[in-house]
């Protein structure tokens, strides 16, 4: 699994690719068959990365599997097609770990509050869609989500910045020094969804606590609803990284849409929802098409960033479902984004792998592929069916009424251990993050298998201090994607 294997593969890829750059997916948004075959193609490409042994995608990060569970779950219900239903339930359970809190032993020493938050949100999807639980004796989907919420909120830290949770969960991880919008935005969203689902007012208290902190810290600026990336805790959040990424706004916007619905259209939440929609359409839409200007302008989107537009598309869909008045503004943007995303899918071995750059909008694949690209494009196209999305249940009409607001609420780090693995030392983890990469193309099949080996134990990624440290990382990620 070392670099020696990589070169021959890259050679094969570079020889073969020109032959496979066939037609993009030509999506006709007014034709049901066209939409469905586009969705099936995109799903198939996504599932080429599935590893059934550990219930995760290969060549990707853990959170991306969590995010993808949402699109697969809705796919199965929308098309009454249970091809992946068991796979999704099994993955949601397996990745929750033995304590049912999304701190599984194989991710524990890499755990980000954002990773745990996105998985908690996926379990919430399962609860809201009334997905049958795999094993009657284990926790309900709601309880699993409550556990993730309790773990993350248990790390709320008033010592620095007057509140907020950090990016990474534990002190031995380098991102522990950073507080950011994605972690706090996901916690906010979880609190909002738990409030709506259970009607328990303590979740609403958390909603308000996180919202107030997010705005007073300046991470969310309510003058024009910019959502900034984050800040080092050591500066007391006085020095904010002002980079803006679509998924940061997206996770807050979804939470706000839930609160709007839960409060039956409260004006306070309407104003906030309108604020995010207005900022999203001015900042993350280019000629009607979703984009992340910070990396797409320069062609430097890393593995995480390829998935951000999928989260933005989810938030557009959630706004339409929970606040139907927003449909007239958002649905046309889903149509134009979906059309452009499909045009960007003419790459890779099959000729239908999707790229990151949708706003090119000219049938040109950008040369990148991966789980994030497939996830984002699939979210855009599947959201064309937002009006047919299933109704959400609450605790009162769920078929599984198990709820436990104190599930996994103990929050001392030693209590959280599931396995007796010694903590990695700084020396073990090395200095700067480094990835080695192996891409193995099964030449006789359509599957693309790729693996990442993370020597450090923590992949430097996401948007963390994006304007300073990640240039080298981005270059590495770019090398990975641009074969
Ligand atoms: C069900 O989904 C699978 C996987 O996406 C697809 O291959 C199959 O064609 C679908 N079945 C129908 C009847 O659409
Ligand atoms: C799939 O997961 C198993 C268990 O973690 C691992 O041993 C195997 O290498 C993985 N396969 C790929 C292709 O990554
Ligand atoms: C929002 O941004 C504006 C300027 O961009 C700034 O003047 C204002 O202080 C910010 N608000 C907060 C609460 O940080
Ligand atoms: C509004 O948003 C833009 C882009 O996000 C930002 O540069 C600007 O400072 C903001 N202005 C105010 C008044 O908040
Ligand atoms: C951060 O703010 C708190 C309370 O406002 C203060 O006690 C602490 O010293 C500050 N820390 C730094 C590093 O400025
Ligand atoms: C809340 O969501 C439901 C289901 O989508 C919708 O019918 C209802 O109109 C929404 N409530 C408000 C106040 O928009
Ligand atoms: C499509 O747009 C991109 C970005 O503007 C450009 O680099 C590329 O050459 C265009 N491709 C075609 C076929 O026009
Ligand atoms: C479940 O109940 C809620 C109200 O508590 C309602 O809005 C929703 O439509 C119901 N879901 C289903 C699937 O009937
Ligand atoms: C939960 O459901 C079971 C049976 O479906 C019922 O006996 C029980 O009373 C319910 N509990 C609550 C709190 O509604
Ligand atoms: C709720 O979770 C707590 C902590 O995990 C546990 O001690 C308690 O027994 C659970 N309550 C129920 C009713 O399952
Ligand atoms: C979680 O930790 C905080 C701060 O260390 C503490 O105040 C709180 O009581 C803890 N909560 C539980 C449920 O242990
Ligand atoms: C893990 O370590 C604790 C404390 O050292 C010990 O009590 C426990 O038995 C160990 N568990 C396993 C599975 O080895």
TrEMBL record:
SUPFAM superfamilies: Six-hairpin glycosidases. Its EC number is 3.2.1.101. One of its GO terms (biological process) is carbohydrate catabolic process. The keyword Signal applies. Residues 1-24 form the signal peptide. This is Mannan endo-1,6-alpha-mannosidase. One of its GO terms (molecular function) is mannan endo-1,6-alpha-mannosidase activity.
């Amino acid at each position: 699994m070392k670099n020696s294997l990589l070169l021959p593969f890259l050679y094969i890829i570079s020889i073969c690719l020109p032959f496979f750059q066939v037609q993009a997916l030509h999506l006709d948004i007014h034709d049901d068959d066209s939409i469905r075959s586009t969705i099936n193609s995109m799903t198939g490409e996504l599932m080429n990365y599935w590893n059934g042994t550990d219930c995760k995608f290969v060549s990707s990060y853990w959170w991306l599997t969590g995010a993808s569970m949402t699109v697969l779950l809705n796919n199965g219900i929308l098309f009454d097609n249970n091809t992946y239903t068991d796979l999704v339930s099994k993955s949601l359970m397996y990745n929750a770990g033995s304590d049912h809190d999304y701190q599984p032993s194989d991710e524990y020493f890499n755990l980000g509050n954002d990773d745990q938050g996105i998985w908690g949100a996926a379990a919430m999807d399962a609860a809201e869609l009334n997905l049958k639980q795999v094993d009657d004796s284990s926790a309900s989907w709601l309880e699993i989500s409550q556990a993730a919420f309790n773990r993350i909120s248990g790390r709320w830290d008033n010592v620095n910045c007057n509140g907020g949770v950090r990016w990474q969960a534990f002190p031995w991880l380098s991102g522990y020094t950073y507080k950011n919008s994605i972690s706090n935005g996901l916690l906010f969203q979880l609190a909002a969804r738990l409030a709506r689902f259970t009607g328990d007012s303590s979740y609403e208290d958390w909603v308000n606590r996180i919202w107030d902190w997010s705005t007073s810290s300046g991470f969310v600026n309510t003058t024009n609803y910019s959502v900034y990336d984050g800040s080092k805790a050591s500066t007391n959040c006085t020095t904010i990284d002002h980079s803006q990424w679509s998924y940061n706004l997206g996770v807050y916007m979804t939470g706000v849409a839930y609160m709007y619905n839960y409060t039956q259209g409260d004006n306070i939440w309407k104003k906030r929802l309108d604020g995010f929609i207005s900022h999203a359409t001015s900042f993350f839409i280019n000629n009607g098409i979703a984009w992340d200007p910070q990396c797409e302008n320069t062609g430097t989107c890393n593995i995480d960033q390829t998935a951000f537009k999928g989260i933005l598309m989810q938030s557009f869909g959630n706004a339409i479902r929970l606040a139907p008045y927003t449909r007239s503004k958002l649905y046309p943007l889903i149509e134009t984004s979906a059309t452009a995303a499909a045009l960007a899918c003419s790459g890779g071995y099959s000729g239908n792998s999707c790229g990151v750059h949708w706003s090119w909008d000219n049938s040109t694949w950008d040369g990148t592929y991966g789980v994030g690209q497939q996830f984002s494009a699939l979210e855009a196209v599947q959201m064309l069916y937002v009006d047919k999305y299933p109704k959400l249940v609450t605790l009162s009409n769920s078929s599984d009424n198990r709820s436990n607001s104190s599930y996994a609420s103990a929050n001392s780090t030693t209590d959280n251990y599931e396995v007796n693995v010694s903590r990695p030392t700084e020396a073990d983890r090395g200095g700067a993050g480094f990835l080695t990469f192996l891409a193995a193309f099964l030449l006789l099949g359509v599957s693309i298998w790729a693996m990442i080996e993370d020597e450090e134990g923590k992949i430097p990624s996401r948007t963390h201090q994006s304007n300073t440290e990640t240039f080298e990382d981005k270059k590495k990620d770019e090398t990975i994607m641009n074969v």
